[in-house]
Design a protein that fits this description.
This protein is of the alpha+beta class. The protein has one domain (21-78). The chain is 22% helix and 33% strand. It has one helix at 2-18, and strands spanning 21-27, 40-43, 49-51, 57-64, 69-72. The strands form two sheets. Strands 3-2-5 form a three-stranded antiparallel β-sheet, with no helix packed on it. Strand 2 and strand 3 (49-51) form a beta hairpin. The protein is elongated.
């Protein structure tokens, strides 16, 4: 009986951990409100990331709740 209860508790805990995954959608804009294409968006501490499209939009799937995002963009000045 004790093993059955422990198994049940572990199943419930693992389900609640899996439920904490998010899909994050956003748009990256400059200070004038213009879209920034090509910005790299990474989940800190992971290899999960993407780049913004031509409209500055991005989508990150299966992101853990409470994760931090890092945005990077290289500007070329000529």
């Amino acid at each position: 009986m004790r093993k059955t209860i422990m198994l049940f508790v572990l199943c419930v805990l693992s389900h609640s951990l899996m439920a904490q995954q998010l899909t994050i959608r956003g748009k990256v804009l400059d200070s004038d409100g213009n879209a920034l294409p090509g910005v790299t968006v990474m989940v800190v501490g992971t290899t999960t990331g993407t780049s913004t499209d031509i409209d500055g939009d991005y989508v990150l799937a299966n992101v853990q709740t409470g994760s931090k995002l890092r945005f990077s963009f290289i500007v070329s000045i000529r």
